[in-house]
Amino acid sequence: MNLQCPLPKLDFDIITLGHGSGGLLMHELLNKTVLDIFKNDLLDQQHDGASFSLPGPLAFSTDSYVVSPISFPGGNIGDLAVNGTVNDLAMCGAQAKYLSLAFILEEGLKVDEFWDVLVSIKNAALKSGVQIVTGDTKVVERGKGDKIFINTSGIGQVHPSARIHHRYIEPGDAIILSGKLAAHGITIMSLREGLQFETDIETDSVNLNHTVNILLDGFGEGIKFLRDPTRGGLASTLNEISGAAKMGIDIDQNLLPLDEQVEGACEMLGLDPLYVANEGLFIAIVKKDIKDEVLQLLHTDPNGAHAAIIGYITDEHPGKVILKSRIGGKRVVSYLPGEQLPRIC
Amino acid sequence: MNLQCPLPKLDFDIITLGHGSGGLLMHELLNKTVLDIFKNDLLDQQHDGASFSLPGPLAFSTDSYVVSPISFPGGNIGDLAVNGTVNDLAMCGAQAKYLSLAFILEEGLKVDEFWDVLVSIKNAALKSGVQIVTGDTKVVERGKGDKIFINTSGIGQVHPSARIHHRYIEPGDAIILSGKLAAHGITIMSLREGLQFETDIETDSVNLNHTVNILLDGFGEGIKFLRDPTRGGLASTLNEISGAAKMGIDIDQNLLPLDEQVEGACEMLGLDPLYVANEGLFIAIVKKDIKDEVLQLLHTDPNGAHAAIIGYITDEHPGKVILKSRIGGKRVVSYLPGEQLPRIC
User: Fold this and answer.
1) Residue B99 lies in a domain
2) Domain annotation covers residue B344
């Protein structure tokens, strides 16, 4: 259930350079929008930063979001920016607690577009249970930015049972993918190319912190590694893991969860779903003897309904990811070589 | 003493969209530049975030930096981005400990310009004693950004004796300004206008955390409020304080520390130094009976050599800042009304 917030009454309907001045206009904008919609005790301190006590161990993460267009089926840059950083913390085994929120706005941005983004941020923050506690707003001249860039940084509390590090990865560990590939990238790509698929494809952007928490509650150190395959797609992320752990990875194309509509769109656009960005998926590398239980538990969660074991860690071919294709051939899957689609997130 | 770092050997000399892809090019760029120059145990985790234990209370702050041009007398966007966030934390009474570092690069940026910024970040981080522990790099198309935008967010440990909040501010408290006004804004402004002053004016950007720490060690809760007058200048910051504390502020123009060259430049450019941005100054509101001791201690610190008591808190005219001019007249000093100079930080 999303909160509906009507646009507050303001004396202006576009953002001007004065809204980033540090002066009166900026205070008017912030007081009536950001500080009002995200109201909480820490943000209300209105100091240069928020102060609090938070028992550790902690995790700390940052991401800037430059997705274009800023709005797309299933979401906009606002919920993407909350979910992205909440998920980066979740991949460290942490529950996001506090977020910072920094905007770089382009002169001429319509205030109602800005407001839509703020409402999305608010709803995404409520869903993931995170508070916006400190922020910043800059405005750049027309043509020196692109509507809205957002940075969110986050602090989370690491689950007491989390032991997530590539050094724990061993041959035989199972590789679980939490859901269906490539929805986010295909959503942005088809929108940008002006393609009208007669489908319901939309971004998979969602907060994964509650799902990860359930796994850590249930299996603790049995969950050895977590990573969300965003930019660069599943292929690049598996290569990162394989390189860091100095292990080989074998995956099976027949096991990859892939929506038919998304697969069709990938074919039309000439894209390999292995390289397309995801925003609501994670890879879990788990101890082999608990893999079926992990999968079972994941299947009870809406974010894990389509989870599947897609492959295994091996001590053969360290640093390499090998895909067994649908017809049984094997090939090395490398990093995304150039750029597939800029500004996907 | 600044660290000198030669540009590493790379196969490219400009940033392309592929450097933000999440794939091979991005890994090559990051491994040879960011991850190498900032090398430390937390950053080396190369996870989606950094994990650590840090006893509280903590402070958390964020700022994006969009200054144009990115390089100016006395510094560049890199040291500005480190000092700015270190100082925001210092204003919360906290010693910055960990910073995140997120870049939005414009396609076509020269790698050697990027490298100069990284070296400045490294040197500023060393001086303030802060570590870069997590980061992000995005690339936007030519004409959708402006060379480099940086977000730094920071976590710091609040000084055990710090009791910094506007609710502690009382009539009679002294207002101390730690140094000379307006140097940063005038540096950027004169550079942008192509003015050649025959002067040595340069940015005052510096880390203030060590100076603040000395004050808190010495005077604890006698230091009631701290704030750095950046965008919007001294006038806007005093208005913020006056509004939050619901107190009046009286300042005396004769007491404002102002460099002659900066004052001359302000006159030439038609600017009021009260509204010009500073990057190495802070306002301290202190208990009246310790004001002279605080000033004495500040004068022993290079960042406080020109510190002065510029006025007092009063219960008359709550929410208003009143300036006694050089010739004895009084006038209300308001927030910066529009925008004086965009992209100053």
Assistant:
1) yes
2) no
